[in-house]
Structures are given as C-alpha cells and as structure tokens.
Amino acid sequence: MASVDTSLTSTFGSAVVLLQANLGVGLLLGALGVAVSSSHEVRSQLEGKPWEATLRSAAKAVSPAPLLIAYALVQVRAAPADMLASTGLLVSGASVFLSTFLAILGPVLGARFATASRVLHVIRAFGQMLMVFGRMPAGVELFCASLFIRAALAARSASAVSCALSLGSDASEDVEQVVAMATLIGAIALLDNMAWGPSGVMAVPFQASLLCTVLLGLVVAVRFGMGGSVTSAGRHAMDVQFEDGLFEGIRSKLVALIFVVLAFSVCRVFVGTFGIQVSTSSISIAWGDLLTASAAKVALLIVGTYIVSFVSAGPLDEAEEETDGIPPINGMEVANGVSKTHGKGLGMLDYMKAIVAPAEVLVLALIAAQMGSQQETSLGALPFKYGFILAALGVGLQIVSLLAFATANAGKKGAEPCFDTTGTIQWAAEDGTLMFGLRSLTLLCLECGLLLGCLGLGATPMVVGFVTSTGALFVLSPAETRQTGIKVATLIWGSFTGGVEAIIEQQRAAQEAAAARRAAAVARTLEAEAEKGEKVGKAVSKQASTVTKRKGKEVPRQKKKHKSARHSKPCKPMSLGA
User: Fold this and answer.
1) What are the tens digits of pLDDT across the range 355-395?
2) What pLDDT shows up at residue 251?
3) What would the pLDDT profile of 515-545 be if each residue is shown by its tens digit?
4) Surface-to-core class of residue 199, CB atoms within 10 Å of its CB (0-12 exposed, 13-18 middle, 19+ buried)
C-alpha cells in the first residue's frame, strides 16, 4: 500500500474529519446523558429543555457520514488519487456538517430551517453522485465493496432529492434495510484486504458485498419496476419482504446466502489476523497489529449478533402493526419495551442489535487509526492512537452488562433493562456495588476511549471544529440558553475535577491506611519477637541457675571423698616369712 496522505484536503483527511464529527456527537450525547443521570444540579438546569431530542436530531443529521467514511477509506486503501471522488467527498461532508449544525441550532432558536435543510439535501445528493462516478479501487474484495457502497450512495442520493422536493415517497424506507449494511460490508472488505492483500477473480463468489448489490437491485426492481409492495419487518438486518411469492422465495434464499458469506468473510479475516501455535506444552495466540485485531473482534461481535438475530427470527405475524415510540437507546425507536418496527415486545437480541449497531463506525475508526499510524512517528501520539481500543472494550462491557442483567432477572416477569444515552444499562441501587462498578468502568472506557481516539486521529481539526461550532452556537443562542450552557459546563467541569480530587483523596487515604497497616504489622512482629526473646532469656537464666545449683552440690561431696582418702590407714606389706 502506498503512503497515506493525511492532510485535511486529502480523501483520508476528509474521512478523519467526518469520523471526528460523527463520534464527537455521540461523545457529547453520552457525556450529557451521564451528567444528567448522575448529577441533580445538572438535571435541574436542563429540566424542561429538549437537550436530548436536540442531540439525537444532530445524530440523525450526521448519520450519512459512516457511508461516506467507508467510501473514503476504500478509495485510500487501493484507488489512485481522484479529483472527482475527492470533490464529491468534500461537498457531501460539508453538507453533513452544516445539516448537523442546523439540527442543533434549530431547537435552540425555535426555528426549523426547512428551506436550508432541503438545499443541503440536494447538495449532499450532488456530492454523493460525484463520488459514484469516481475511480474504482483495485482488488476484488475492495472493488465489490466499492460497488455496493456506490449503489448505496446512489440510493440515498435519490432519497435525499425526494425528501428535498417533498415527493412523499417512502422509497428510502424500502431500501434502507439493505443500504444500512454498506458500512459494515466496507469495513469487512478493508479488514480482509489488510489481512490477505488484494484477492483474485476466484474470490468473487465469496463477496457478500456483491450479493448485497444484487439484493438492492432486486428491491428497487420490485418496488419501482413492477410496482410491487415491499415491507420492512425490522426483525434483523436486511429484513425486507415481498408480497409476490416468487420474488420472496428468491429474496429469502439470497439473504440467507449473504449471512453465510458474511460468516465466512469474518472467519477469513480472523485466520489472516490471528495466528495460533499449538505445542505439547502450550497454546499461544499471536496477532500482527493491535488496532486491526480489535477491529476484527468488534466486526465479529456485530456480525455474530446479526446472524443470531436472523436465525432466531420467526415468521412475521400479519396482525402485527407499527407502533409509535421514543428512542431511549442508540436511536432505536421503542416505547414501553415495544419496537416501532414490529409490535412484539423487545427481547435481548433487539437490545444487543441496538448496542452493536453504532459500533460499525468504531470499526471504521480503528481501521483509520491503523492506516494513519503507519505515517505517525511521534511516540507521544501512540497512546491516543490506541484510544479506540478502550472504546471497543466498552462496547464489550455493554454486552456483558446486558447478559448479566438477563441472568440476574431470568424468570422475572416485567423486568426490562433501562439504558442511558450511551446504550449502557442503568443499574438500580439494590443491584450492589459490583454492578455499579461495572457501569462506571464501561462509561469510562467508552467516553475516554472515544476522546483519546479522536485526538489521536488529529488534534488540530478536532479542536478547531469544536471551538468553531460551539463558538458559533454560543453567539447565535439567546441569552438564557447561553447562561444555561455556562452553568451546565461549569457543573460538569466541577463534577469532573471533584471526581478526580475524590479519586486522588481516596487513593491517598488508601495509601495511608496501607502504610498504617504495614506499621502495625511491623510493630506486632517486633513485640512478638521481644516477648519471645524475653521468654528465651528467662529460660536461659533458669537453666543457668539450675546448673549452678547442681554444681554447688557436687563439689563438697568430692572434697569429702578426697579427705577420707587422705586420712585412711596405709596397707601393710605382706611378709614372705610369716
């Protein structure tokens, strides 16, 4: 692979800025949600204000960014520099930024900016159509992925124009179930290219992106060419259905084949990324690049969730009707545990899909960090480059928390998990400190990981973009809104610094307690040794006294014996003549 041009005017630079904008909105939404749920002062300041609806509107406005990012990374990986693609990406990205800014500014000012939004929709459609006619990348896997991404861009361009002209067509809803898979398909193709390099023609039958392109063409042909009815049940990814029996049979088999090929593609990525060495004494697993390995794990989690959801989906009940709802978790519209897409109560798989769906952007972020790290030589930037790995760990902890909740409430009727704006379960007070600690660790990994990772992609565009957008919002906002924003920012900063000081104070108290325990243990040891020495001394003294008494008794007896020997009469010699 050639060196990556990381300048802001390059295709990769545009992808990085789009990544930072997309993840930045999620980071801000999560931080405010955590602050509201944990601080009474912040909650009272924002009470009655549509802050969550405003940020979710911004998240919806920035939702076209992941598809643009996937296109850009595929182009950077294997396509030569192309003015048409670069210009289209800049135009589309600029329209996404302005749409996101207006989505936040509108509720603040009480305005809708309907005309401006329509103009921006048309501009984005124009930029995306320029991207469609850009140069195709090399390699079978990236060529097929780019083909599907371009088809998705064309479909969304038509949808944007239809929305701008108020045609009232629901074509976007008919094809969105298929188009939504383009980001994940592009990420898996990039991981396959990183693990194995460009593939040959023999790999064409094993490309899920090519099958998805066929499925998208089938939906468009049935919906517009034949005037047929297309329904989106929403039970799993690509869950569209036709009324015509013949086309429905083709569609069901094609979707099943897509999931089979997706499973094969992820396994192929794992085989190329991880190496297993088995010996008689041990089993070792090795991987090449940590960022690529983390991206492969997150992709496996997403694809595994989608496959399980597809396998477990039963036939759709005709009596089920759509229900209105609110979006309490990651933009998934549910109300009282009932999904908007189908009237049945939500199960654990529905919540898992809502958790892992935003992680597709995280896979792209890990891939972009790996591609940018090849040009990075500063050691100080390396910790920031690996920040997205913390965020990936946070996503895994979200799934662990959900499974822990399901296990703890197995058999209980009416037990529904409550999520915050990050998609993390909010445990009740009676759940104990262990679950509270798990939630705190999850939020720490998510928020800090996203912040560090975005800074690692490029601190200058992130800081400039944040300061510019917040400064413009501050200037254009009413005085009351500015005062509320200042108070909330002050409270959040005070809570953060107070929390840091509390952690430092807790660590200092813990160190002092540990030092006191060590000193007490040393004192007890010395006291025990002193008592032992005193006992030994007494025993030695007693033994010495006993020996002395014994010697005093034996010495006179010996003298008496010598005396008697000295005064005894001598024996007379025997006479021979007697």
Assistant:
1) 998 999 999 999 999 988 765 545 555 677 789 999 999 99
2) 87
3) 888 888 888 888 887 777 777 777 767 776 7
4) buried
Give pLDDT, residue 334.
Answer: 38
DSSP letters along 301-331, please?
HHHHHHHHHHHH--PPPTT------EEEETT
Portion of the chain with pLDDT greater than 90, in percent = 32
By three-state DSSP, how is residue 1 classified?
A: coil
Three-state SS at 225: helix
Q: Higher-confidence residue: 513 or 83?
A: 83
CA distance 132 to 126: 10
Whether 499 has a pLDDT exceeding 70, the answer reads no
Per-residue tokens: 317: 């009940």
**283: amino acid identity, one letter:** I
Stretch (H or E) spanning 283? strand 283-287
The closest of 53, 61, 76, 49 to 24, measured between CA atoms, is: 61
Distance of alpha carbon 148 from alpha carbon 16, whole angstroms: 22
Six token digits for residue 123 = 């501009």
Find, among 52, 74, 231, the residue nearest to 148 by Cα: 74
> Distance between CA 305 and CA 512 in Å, rounded?
47
* Residue 339, Cβ density class (10 Å: 0-12 exposed, 13-18 middle, ≥19 buried): buried
Amino acid at 91: V
Give me the pLDDT at residue 322, please: 44
Which pLDDT band holds residue 506 (cuts at 50, 70, 90)?
A: low
With beta carbons less than 8 A apart as the criterion, state whether 36 and 404 touch: no
DSSP string covering 508-572, please?
HHHHHHHHHHHHHHHHHHHHHHHHHHHHHHHHHHHHHHHHHHHHHHHHHHHHHHHHHHHSSPPPP
Task: Report how far apart, in Å, the C-alpha atoms of 303 and of each of 191, 195, 310, 315, 352 are.
Answer: 14, 18, 10, 21, 12
